[in-house]
Each structure stands twice: as structure tokens, then as C-alpha cells.
Write a structure and sequence with these properties.
The chain has 211 residues and is an alpha+beta fold. It contains 7 helices and 11 strands. Helix content is 32%, strand content 24%. The N and C termini lie far apart (40 Å).
């Protein structure tokens, strides 16, 4: 069965452009983003990997380690990385896993046989410091992902893991958040000293608590 939210992210050892990766050791106590792309030397993948390199500082700020993967060989990755910099202006600054025997792809369900028997789809797994899966997203080969959205979700996941709040539609960091309906108005007044406004009894908004 496919990996689901709350499942433990499987550990693995694999070769990468930055040497052998022992996944749990690589993550340490950080958050992680493991993402697959279908194939080296292809246009959409080139733009995606360059974009993740451009955003690496944003992932670092969020204590989040990124890791790319495809079923291509390490030699293929090594020949391709120069193109990523040429095409996007961003040099690869995170490891790209080689998974020619599909070990990691199979563990994470990244090959969807009705899309392609041999290539990974565009999977994203966000993994928490507890090594549990917090987010899964799957895109087809024809559609490049929006990695700003992945950062936005990480902001929400990190905030909501530490406070009794959730984040509304299209929320971005710094905007008001929703107080858990399980908290009484009386408790909310002490837990959220910046105050809150009640739109409906189950929809109460408060300024982001960790700012
Ligand atoms: C691409 O990155 O452009 C791509 C890769 C595999 C299949 C289709 C498109």
C-alpha cells in the first residue's frame, strides 16, 4: 500500500551526487523533503532541480534537508548537473540520489505503472523530525511543481506542530491562523494573548502565535 500521512518514512542507503546517503543519518533531527523526478536530461526536470537549488537557502532557514531522486545512474546525474546550472543559473547544492534498481522508488511508491513502468513520477514527501510522513504530493511528468508551495506547507506544518492552530486557505507565513475548535474561548484568551476574533463559534482567527 502507498505511504500515507503519519506512516514512518522508510530508511534506506543509496548513492548520490554527494556520496553515499544513509537517509536517517542525512536527516538527523531536521525536517526533510524527498522528491523524485522522471528522468535526467529532460526539460521540466531541469527547471525543477534548478529551482530547488535556488530555494535551498529557504529550506535551510526551515531546518529542512532536501534530497532529489530519479532511476537514472549516478554517472548520468553527474553528466547532467552541469546542464542544470547552464540552463537555470543555479548549481546543484543538494544530493541527487541514483536509484537504478528502484530500491528507494519502490519503498516510496514513486513508480506508478499506469503512468510509466520504468520512470518515477513527480513525488514529494515531507518528513518530520520524528521520521513520519507529513505531506505527500504527486504530479505527472508533464507538470512541473511549485516549490514555493512546498515551502508554504512546511511553514504550516512547523507552526501547527507546535501550537493548537491550523492554517486557512491560501495562508502564508505571517497571516492570521485558526484556533483549534477544541479550545474553549476562556483557554484561547490565555493561550493567544494577542487576542482573537470569532467569525463563527468554530472559526476563530488569531495572529500567528510564534511571531
Ligand atoms: C520533462 O522533464 O520534461 C519530462 C520528463 C519525463 C517525461 C516527460 C517530461
Amino acid at each position: 500500500m502507498a505511504l500515507q500521512l503519519g506512516d514512518v518514512a522508510p530508511d534506506f542507503t543509496a548513492e548520490s551526487t554527494e556520496g553515499t546517503i544513509h537517509f536517517y543519518d542525512y536527516l538527523g533531527d531536521s525536517w526533510g523533503v524527498l522528491f523524485s523526478h522522471p528522468k535526467d536530461f529532460t526539460p521540466v526536470c531541469t527547471t525543477e532541480l534548478g529551482e530547488v537549488a535556488r530555494l535551498k537557502g529557504e529550506f535551510d532557514k526551515r531546518n529542512t534537508k532536501v534530497l532529489g531522486l530519479s532511476v537514472d545512474s549516478l554517472e548520468s546525474h553527474q553528466s547532467w548537473v552541469g546542464d542544470i546550472e547552464d540552463a537555470t543559473g543555479n548549481a546543484l547544492n543538494y544530493p541527487l540520489l541514483a536509484d537504478p534498481d528502484h530500491t528507494v522508488s519502490d519503498l516510496y511508491g514513486m513508480i506508478h505503472p499506469n503512468a510509466s513502468d520504468t520512470l518515477t513520477v513527480r513525488s514529494v514527501f515531507v518528513i518530520g523530525p520524528d521520521k513520519k510522513v507529513k505531506l505527500t504530493i504527486t504530479y505527472p511528468a508533464s507538470t512541473g511543481r511549485n516549490f514555493a508551495e512546498i515551502l508554504r506547507v512546511i511553514d504550516s506544518l512547523q507552526l501547527t506542530s507546535g501550537h493548537s492552530v491550523s492554517t486557512p486557505v491560501n495562508w502564508t507565513a505571517g497571516e492570521d491562523v485558526i484556533i483549534s475548535p477544541a479550545i474553549s474561548d476562556e483557554d484561547a484568551a490565555t493561550r493567544f494573548p494577542k487576542g482573537f476574533r470569532t467569525v463563527k463559534p468554530y472559526l476563530r482567527l488569531t495572529p500567528q502565535p510564534d511571531r
